[in-house]
């Protein structure tokens, strides 16, 4: 018997017998904790501090207990609009909020709004903490004088384009119907957080200022500081910057309102979608209720992945859907339990609903098995272990827990409920909440122009009385010695990056192992990097590489796909396989306690893929459905059409950038094609193993030798790739794709830039960041902040060993399509002529890049990604460790020269997706280049 077969049999035996059980049991939930200290300022501001010294960064989270549920009638979308205004400068720092953070090297910054809360967060170098706290306190305590009508109008336009962008996506309007159909008309969750256009238009300056006074007081706020900080420092700094901010008005809290329903109701709408989607939802208890945790477990068992009941029934057995999932959305007043299915072409949706009803009835009658619960508890435990790595993730959990559950460690109670649940507990919760009162939304493909179905709201219900807000007159402010007239505190020193030393070894058969130790959490990331990628499709059928990689975990010689999924769940293992342009990867993010069986499973899927016909047919159907979905998504559609245009037919990169290939190739793929591709590319003489995490070189080499050390190359020839050079386009071209009824147009303009391996790659990246890569770059400042025609506009590159694509991107409101394209072209022309990047712009990008390094490599995943890039692009082991010096050494002239080398306005290929009845004439009038209308495959459309 071959050794590979012995390996598979040994794995199967270990996973089904006593050898396996102790390894899983060794990982106990009791080990999970986020130690913290908490204090409250005299003004009522609650502060939580968590110390984590693994990197010289601090994550600052500021959570306000206000969201869209607090909006009065006629002012929907107001909480989210106000969140945007909070980024537009304060009384003592006019201008863009992001600017000092980018200069200081922020590694994570944003703000979000949902039904129950609004949060703002940033992760900064430890030395920039004073700056971050000054900025957060200035907009909390000194905002109103900075808000004027111009600022309000600007951000209103940005938010409205955010709404258009969401609505323009397939199924993008579903949320409005779901909310209207699940909670009464007077329920706080009846309207979406994004709000209505009418209400956004009606928002006044007086409304803005009232909202601030009502909800943005210190006593309605939680701050969490997590990372390289201690509680004594936190007390001193938070009191210094926030102590003089008033507590604010008492904020009433709305009582929980589950709004259970007795009857089943439904609605159907049309949309420009590729297939029917059914979504069904039930109202379930809000946060802090044990039943929520039990129902979350039920959702895993019913639809948490390949091993779940609905997936096995609807995808594997009955073959009715291409995908089905079940999830819980937790909120404060009422949560939702949802299943969603994408129906196969030609299948009667009623059959899908009948099958789901049958499985749900069985579940309510008998509950889950103990084995099912054990698997999903193990998965949950592993996810919680991984979540302890990022200081930002821990800060978010502590803040969320304090806001919703009244205690920063309230999350542990929820976690204990999950881990201690019995089958009877879960069954009882499902019976209580899933036996009646569901709402079903069916979205069907429109035969022609989609017909808007009316949004039918449930009648108003008896709303529970609000809970009065705690009195704030007991709170007091403390005097501040901060002289805000001096502006933002200067950040004058910055911590150095500490990147793990790169170690190298070899297995018995010569496979290279590259390791970076990081002992922050008991997790190890192991990646097999094969020199393949989409480019390996060039001599065969497009999509072969990605399709074959996706098939690896669909079955081995001894395990089928469900058994693989169940094994992963028991081990708490994240296993993924896939490809990029130049490489394919099999990645295992595993718990150290379960290293041996996890590596055995990884080896089995890589070495022994079965490529069974039934699995191929199932995956083929899902793949083709995915391609059809891509063709209905504006960005997906553009990224399918653009690459063949800029690279030219026959080039290895002239493929949809999703790697999905085309329908004809996928339909023609068979097991022989997949085995031939595997033999040529997935082999021990074409791989390196990249490891990062909680292990040592002797340990990981020994473990890898057990499962890969005897792997020998097949007799078949190893695959070879050739990436030819492509000349720049001689003249610009424009390709239009019609999307009737689109509320936005997607503009994507592309050309070819040098390889990621180019000697001046750092200059190219710095140039791109200043021109269009950062929030404060020229493109976004123009189309978003100045014109507010787009929610965001950027330039970006995809890394590649050959010439890489350089793209300008802007989803814009339909009536500003031509004007937006003109602005993009103007910016492209000016950056290489009349308005080159300035010394200040370049300096800001260099500073941001250098200073963000310590936070950029905080996680094992980030370290593993750096090692993988180094290996793929031939970089030395000290590439990251020496990055700071090379970034700082860049000369302005070299960065400006990179712009001239790459940004070639007359070589741009434009792909514009939108409603041609409204935009075509305007685009043609611009004379950007020769205009051609093409279909979703990039083929010319005959003129009508």
From TrEMBL:
Residues 1-26 form the signal peptide. Residues 46-170, 513-634 form the Peptidase M16 N-terminal domain. The keyword Magnesium does not apply. Keywords: Signal. Residues 204-378, 671-847 form the Peptidase M16 C-terminal domain. The keyword Signal applies. Pfam families: Peptidase_M16, Peptidase_M16_C. InterPro entries: Metalloenz_LuxS/M16, MPP/UQCRC_Complex, Pept_M16_N, Peptidase_M16_C. GO terms for molecular function: metal ion binding. This is Insulinase family protein. It comes from Thermomonas aquatica. The lineage of its organism: Bacteria, Pseudomonadati, Pseudomonadota, Gammaproteobacteria, Lysobacterales.
């Amino acid at each position: 018997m071959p050794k590979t077969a012995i390996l598979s049999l040994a794995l199967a035996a270990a996973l089904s017998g006593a050898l396996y059980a102790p390894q899983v049991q060794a990982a106990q939930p009791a080990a999970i904790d986020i130690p913290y200290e908490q204090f409250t300022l005299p003004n009522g501001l609650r502060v939580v501090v968590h110390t984590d010294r693994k990197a010289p960064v601090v994550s600052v989270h500021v959570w306000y207990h206000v969201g869209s549920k607090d909006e009065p009638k006629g002012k929907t979308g107001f909480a989210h609009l106000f969140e945007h205004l909070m980024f537009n400068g304060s009384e003592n720092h006019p201008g863009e909020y992001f600017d000092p953070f980018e200069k200081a090297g922020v590694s994570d910054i944003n703000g979000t709004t949902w039904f129950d809360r609004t949060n703002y967060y940033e992760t900064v170098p430890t030395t920039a903490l004073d700056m971050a706290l000054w900025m957060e306190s200035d907009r909390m305590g000194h905002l109103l004088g900075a808000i004027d009508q111009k600022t309000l109008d600007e951000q209103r336009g940005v938010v409205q384009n955010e709404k258009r962008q969401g609505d323009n996506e397939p199924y993008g309007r579903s949320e409005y119907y779901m909310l209207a159909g699940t909670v009464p008309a007077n329920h706080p969750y009846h309207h979406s957080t994004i709000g209505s256009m009418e209400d956004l238009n009606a928002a006044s300056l007086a409304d803005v200022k009232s909202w601030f006074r009502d909800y943005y007081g210190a006593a309605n706020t939680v701050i969490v500081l997590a990372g390289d900080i201690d509680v004594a420092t936190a007390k001193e700094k938070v009191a210094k910057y926030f102590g003089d901010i008033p507590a604010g008005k008492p904020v009433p809290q709305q009582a929980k309102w589950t709004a259970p329903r007795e009857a089943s109701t439904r609605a159907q709408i049309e949309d420009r979608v590729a297939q029917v989607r059914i979504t069904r939802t039930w109202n379930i208890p809000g946060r802090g209720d044990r039943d929520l945790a039990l129902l979350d477990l039920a959702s895993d068992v019913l639809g948490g992945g390949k091993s779940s009941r609905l997936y096995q029934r609807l995808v594997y057995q009955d073959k009715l859907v291409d995908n089905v999932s079940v999830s819980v959305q937790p909120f404060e007043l009422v949560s939702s339990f949802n299943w969603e299915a994408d129906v196969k072409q030609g299948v009667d949706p009623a059959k899908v609903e009948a099958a789901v009803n049958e499985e749900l009835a069985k579940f309510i009658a008998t509950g889950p098995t103990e084995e099912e619960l054990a698997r999903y508890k193990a998965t949950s435990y592993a996810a919680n272990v991984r979540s302890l790595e990022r200081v930002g993730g821990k800060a978010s959990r502590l803040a969320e827990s304090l806001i919703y559950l009244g205690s920063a460690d309230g999350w542990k109670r929820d976690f204990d409920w999950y881990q201690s649940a019995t089958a009877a507990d879960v069954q009882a919760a499902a019976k209580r909440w899933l036996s009646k009162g569901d709402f079903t939304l069916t979205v069907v493909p429109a035969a022609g122009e989609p017909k808007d179905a009316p949004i039918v709201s449930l009648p108003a219900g008896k709303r529970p009385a609000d809970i009065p807000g705690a009195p704030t007159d007991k709170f007091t402010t403390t005097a501040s010695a901060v002289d805000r007239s001096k502006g933002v505190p200067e950040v004058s020193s910055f911590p150095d990056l500490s990147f793990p030393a790169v170690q190298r070894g070899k297995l018995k058969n010569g496979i290279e192992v590259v390791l970076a130790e990081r002992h922050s959490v008991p997790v190890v990331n192991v990646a097999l990097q094969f020199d393949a990628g989409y480019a390996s499709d060039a001599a065969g059928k497009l999509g072969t590489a990605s399709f074959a990689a996706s098939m690896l975990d669909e079955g081995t010689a001894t395990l089928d796909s469900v058994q693989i999924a169940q094994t992963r769940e028991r081990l708490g293992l994240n296993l993924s396989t896939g490809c990029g342009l130049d490489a394919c990867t099999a990645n295992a993010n595993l718990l150290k306690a379960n290293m041996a069986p996890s590596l055995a499973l990884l080896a089995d899927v890589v070495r022994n893929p079965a490529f069974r016909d039934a699995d191929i047919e199932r995956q083929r159907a899902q793949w083709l459905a995915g391609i059809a979905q891509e063709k209905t998504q504006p960005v997906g559609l553009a990224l399918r059409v653009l690459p063949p245009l800029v690279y030219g037919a026959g080039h290895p990169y002239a493929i949809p950038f999703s790697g999905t290939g085309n329908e004809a190739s996928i339909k023609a793929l068979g097991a022989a094609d997949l085995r031939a591709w595997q033999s040529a590319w997935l082999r021990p003489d074409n791989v390196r193993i990249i490891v990062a995490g909680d292990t040592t070189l002797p340990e990981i080499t020994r473990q890898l030798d057990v499962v890969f050390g005897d792997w020998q190359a097949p007799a078949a020839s190893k695959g070879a790739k050739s990436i030819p050079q492509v000349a720049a386009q001689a003249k610009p071209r424009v390709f239009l794709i019609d999307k009737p009824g689109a509320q936005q147009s997607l503009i994507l303009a592309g050309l070819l830039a040098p390889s990621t391996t180019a000697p001046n790659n750092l200059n190219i990246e710095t140039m791109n960041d200043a021109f269009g890569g950062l929030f404060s770059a020229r493109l976004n400042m123009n189309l978003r902040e100045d014109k507010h025609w787009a929610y965001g506009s950027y330039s970006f590159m995809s890394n590649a060993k050959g010439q890489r694509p350089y793209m300008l991107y802007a989803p814009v409101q339909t009536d500003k399509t031509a004007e937006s394209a003109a602005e993009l072209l103007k910016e492209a022309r000016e950056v290489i002529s009349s308005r080159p990047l300035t010394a200040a712009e370049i300096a800001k990008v260099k500073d941001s890049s250098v200073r963000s390094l310590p936070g950029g490599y905080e996680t094992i995943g980030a370290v593993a990604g750096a090692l993988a890039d180094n290996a793929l692009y031939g970089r030395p082991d000290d590439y990251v460790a020496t990055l700071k010096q090379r970034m700082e050494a860049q000369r302005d002239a070299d960065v400006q020269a990179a712009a001239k080398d790459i940004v070639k306005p007359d070589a741009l290929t434009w792909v514009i997706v939108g409603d041609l009845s409204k935009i075509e004439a305007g685009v043609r009038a611009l004379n950007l280049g020769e205009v051609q209308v093409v279909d979703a495959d990039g083929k010319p459309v005959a003129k009508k």
